[in-house]
Design brief:
181 residues, mainly beta, 4-stranded parallel β-sheet, 2% helix, globular
Length: 181
């Protein structure tokens, strides 16, 4: 087993279209098309940059009904990691090298279609701290100012463990602003 390392991460980019090999299975003698999927797992941090599993960038409309017409070409996908951070399509990796405020890292509308299985940093059980680990606004994580921007997310979010690699407190406001509901 390879231990988790705090200075390592996996970054996905250019993943708006995922490979989708199909195979034909035979049930009761009749051919049946079966769609394969993709699972990516790491015991380190995972960063998703830009649209993921969203062919054509569909689904960025603020009207939820319009998004469902753009699902063609998506494949079943799951992402498993110590912590998952979503970076918009406008993210620039050079931003991580500079001391920029969240307002200087402006997000753009982004679409992610995958199940997330990840960890979280729990809220302390004591009344002596004002730290709140957060609900869905801190899960997944963000690094940009998403004010008036939309993250269209299609999938399930599952927290199974405490994060070991990205175990520092994660806070809304100084680090990021949440996407529009």
């Amino acid at each position: 087993m390879v231990p988790s390392r705090s200075n390592w991460a996996v970054q996905l980019h250019n993943a708006s279209v995922l490979p989708n090999p199909t195979r034909t299975a035979h049930f009761s003698g009749a051919p049946h098309a079966d769609v394969s999927g993709l699972t990516l797992a790491t015991n380190s941090a995972l960063y998703i940059q830009g649209n993921f599993n969203a062919p054509g960038g569909g689904g960025t409309s603020t009207n939820p009904e319009a998004n469902f017409g753009n699902l063609g070409g998506e494949v079943p996908a799951s992402l498993v990691a110590d912590a998952i951070t979503v970076l918009s399509t406008s993210w620039d990796n050079q931003w991580s090298m500079r001391q920029l405020s969240a307002s200087q890292r402006r997000a753009t509308n982004t679409v992610v279609s995958a199940a997330f299985v990840t960890g979280n940093v729990p809220t302390p059980n004591t009344g002596t701290t004002n730290f709140y680990s957060g609900g869905v606004e801190n899960f997944p994580r963000f690094l940009e100012d998403w004010a008036s921007r939309t993250l269209t997310y299609r999938g399930s979010m599952v927290m199974l463990f405490r994060s070991e690699v990205q175990a520092r407190r994660w806070g809304f406001g100084q680090v990021y602003s949440a996407p529009q509901p």
